[in-house]
Amino acid sequence: MAKSINISYIPEIEYGEAWEKQKQIVKAIDEQQQKEHLLLLQHPPTFTIGSQRHPEHLLLGPEQLRQQGIALFEIDRGGDITYHGPGQLVGYPLLWLDGGKGLNLHGYLRNLEQVIMNYLAQFGIEGSRKPEYTGVWVGDEKICAIGVKFNKCRHRKGFITSHGFAFNVKSGIQEEGFRGIVPCGIQEYGVTSLEDVTGRSFTVEEAAQGIIPHFNELFGYTGAISADNSFINE
């Protein structure tokens, strides 16, 4: 039976604020004070460096970052460096993974990838995986980066997920942000977007609405974006 989940869409929120909100919601889910939650949002221009910690993959110095208005965060998700900015749909699923039911952390990552692949298939676009990398690709160009954290529960068995996926929607995002880094430390492949691979125009909110049914189906939830776009719905 499908479980109910809170879903929010935030047109833009500073990265640091969203990170703190994730931590608050993870704690509330662990304490069973709130339902699980899917945050869908956009960030202003931001580079995040994951736990692999390869600062050499950042190609801009502090002054260049300041001039271009790009924030920089070292964070606690897995993976290397990536870019977040306008025109990209960022998804933070905050889900309880029951430690007593054959917990499969790799399966969670594969399901996240499959959500994006199923959405692309609506438009006749074949999304794929590369065995050595996490994320979703169209040909040899990455369209969706994935980096997560599994937060060990303190009050029940299992883990609660945080961080998640960054799905490039608008054309031109490659030039706007990714040229300042070696995305995810991958030098041999490029980056693309939903608009580039379909030849159609999308808003980020349209992409968010389109992805939700696939997320619900694969993860066994029922939910829609709340009318007030709030983080805490109950």
TrEMBL record:
<keyword id="KW-0012">Acyltransferase</keyword>
<comment type="similarity">
    <text>Belongs to the LipB family.</text>
</comment>
<dbReference type="GO" id="GO:0005737">
    <property type="term" value="C:cytoplasm"/>
</dbReference>
<feature type="active site" description="Acyl-thioester intermediate">
    <location>
        <position position="184"/>
    </location>
</feature>
<comment type="function">
    <text>Catalyzes the transfer of endogenously produced octanoic acid from octanoyl-acyl-carrier-protein onto the lipoyl domains of lipoate-dependent enzymes. Lipoyl-ACP can also act as a substrate although octanoyl-ACP is likely to be the physiological substrate.</text>
</comment>
<feature type="domain" description="BPL/LPL catalytic">
    <location>
        <begin position="32"/>
        <end position="223"/>
    </location>
</feature>
<dbReference type="GO" id="GO:0033819">
    <property type="term" value="F:lipoyl(octanoyl) transferase activity"/>
</dbReference>
<feature type="binding site">
    <location>
        <begin position="164"/>
        <end position="166"/>
    </location>
    <ligand>
        <name>substrate</name>
    </ligand>
</feature>
<comment type="pathway">
    <text>Protein modification; protein lipoylation via endogenous pathway; protein N(6)-(lipoyl)lysine from octanoyl-[acyl-carrier-protein]: step 1/2.</text>
</comment>
<dbReference type="InterPro" id="IPR020605">
    <property type="entry name" value="Octanoyltransferase_CS"/>
</dbReference>
<protein>
    <recommendedName>
        <fullName>Octanoyltransferase</fullName>
        <ecNumber>2.3.1.181</ecNumber>
    </recommendedName>
</protein>
<dbReference type="InterPro" id="IPR045864">
    <property type="entry name" value="aa-tRNA-synth_II/BPL/LPL"/>
</dbReference>
<dbReference type="Pfam" id="PF21948">
    <property type="entry name" value="LplA-B_cat"/>
</dbReference>
<feature type="binding site">
    <location>
        <begin position="77"/>
        <end position="84"/>
    </location>
    <ligand>
        <name>substrate</name>
    </ligand>
</feature>
<keyword id="KW-0963">Cytoplasm</keyword>
<dbReference type="GO" id="GO:0009249">
    <property type="term" value="P:protein lipoylation"/>
</dbReference>
<feature type="site" description="Lowers pKa of active site Cys">
    <location>
        <position position="142"/>
    </location>
</feature>
<dbReference type="InterPro" id="IPR000544">
    <property type="entry name" value="Octanoyltransferase"/>
</dbReference>
<keyword id="KW-0808">Transferase</keyword>
<feature type="binding site">
    <location>
        <begin position="145"/>
        <end position="147"/>
    </location>
    <ligand>
        <name>substrate</name>
    </ligand>
</feature>
<dbReference type="InterPro" id="IPR004143">
    <property type="entry name" value="BPL_LPL_catalytic"/>
</dbReference>
